[in-house]
Sequence to fold (617 residues):
Amino acid sequence: MALIVQKYGGTSVGTVERIQAVAQRVKQAVDAGNSVVVVVSAMGKTTDGLVKLAVEISANPDRREMDMLLSTGEQVTIALLSMALQEVGQPALSMTGAQVGIVTEAEHSRARILRIEPDRLKRHLAQGKVVVVAGFQGISSTNELEITTLGRGGSDTSAVALAAALRADYCEIYTDVPGILTTDPRLVPDAQLLAEITSDEMLELASLGAKVLHPRAVEIARNFGVPLVVRSSWTDEPGTWVVSPPPKPRSLDGLELTRAVDAVEFDTDQAKVSLLRVPDHPGVAARLFGEIASQALNVDLIIQSIHEGNTNDIAFTVTHDSLRQAEAVASAIIPALCGGDPAATEAEVMVEQQIAKVSIAGAGMIGRPGVAAQMFTTLAAAGVNIQMISTSEVKVSCVVMAADCDKAIAALCNTFNLTSSPYQEMRTSELPASSPIGHFKDATHHSVLPPVRGVALDRKQARIAIRAIPDRPGMAARVFQLLAAKNISVDMIIQSQRCRVVNDVATRDIAFTVAQMDGETARLVLEEARPELNCDDIVLNAAIAKVSIVGSGMVQQPGVAARMFAALAHHQINIEMIATSEIKVSCVVSETDGVKALQVIHAAFELSGDRQIQMFA
Ligand code: ASP
Ligand code: MG
Fold:
């Protein structure tokens, strides 16, 4: 007998018939001997309808009144589902967020959950009732007992938080797709269902726009080790399990306000190879990394900065024992890459052996742009210059001079209140023993994760390039502080490798991507700060698309990035920027190439299958 939290999304409870079908499914779980808590969304598009009503009355409605209004949607569903359960002979009771004790910050329309006080809920469960809880809503921790909402899509978050607080055996998210797919089936019809995915992979995909799960729900599942499964409401198929490594013990108090950074990590076995002034046309990265992969050299970070004239810089890091070979490959390939291109006659290879990678890691940094800025500020204050930056949803890594490594770690541990841990990758062998997954174990019981689990396309990004910004500690910090102050999250961040001397000052270019809707604000903020930043032009380009591959298995396998680049080259798609993290490779391409890029990459990793995924609108 297990304690299960089941969550049903809006489509799954969109009509009376569907609510009745959900009641049947809930009853089955109870009849099988389980205790069940159900969390529901508002019926169908109810929440959108309520928003529309509000906007007809006020262009800028009060956020408190909005919460009062939107929270009613879920209350309709809980009462109806409870009645439907009673109709089929299943004792049930509906409860609002407040009645369940879902206590949140007093931030209307985007409250984070502070704690859950489920004593009353537990009493009803113990009496054999199904408790049906309104998702998406809570009650403020202040004396006023204000109704709050968690932000659109937030009922996933209610469900997983409740599962964590109740220490439920697992949480099931029922939705209108059969689970997590390798990519968006509207763009790639032969996208396939995944049997499992790690929470780190899911976080990357969710933030890249895979809408199936609210990223905050994944964050809680990861932090508290809640086993999570995404399944279809219409079938009995097993769906996709989202699995997490054993969590560090943490208090349920301040549930969603866990500290931003869990660990400071470092890796001193890193060396950097840079290719300066290579031609900017399709196939260059593919040839370079294809050659590197054919020598079985494993590359860690890769960046390609924005072009300058007709050329690019590409830099990557390898372990020290691979450096000689990697350098030899790079040097040997330069003439072939440049093949008579006059713009590229000055191409050269540079190596740097004395470098280290320092990272901050933690699911708590999601959606908090200030955290990366804080890292850069800390490094600047310690006088540490940043050579390369790589970001993912749950990690920011900076390449610095090896001589600065100790200083950097000490300063970061101090800022984030931590002791350092040596660099460690999450191995799938560390997945919880209770994980219902056995799929990827080979005959010797080693985990063999496929290198790429999902491919995502983000067409809602814009790129900002800051030209010729002085190359000294503190500049990245300043740029990202300015953006964080406007609550703008930055995704890919790239510094050019090429150093240009302008009026006796060494400068580099910095480019990064932001959500398209933040593009103009970001440009204006930086434009205003131009005298202080002492840089050249600040250029905004919204006509870009970002394609990414995500997979925990890529850390152990050489050649994954090369395969992605080769797929793009084969279709004459030019790569405008490259950035990688441990489990993700992202390329910026022109907007018009976006969908094609997604399709050819999905095919290149053989993610396609022959099962047609049914989509319900
Ligand atoms: N009904 C809310 C919304 O549409 C919450 C949810 O469905 O997750 O945003
Ligand atoms: Mg939803």
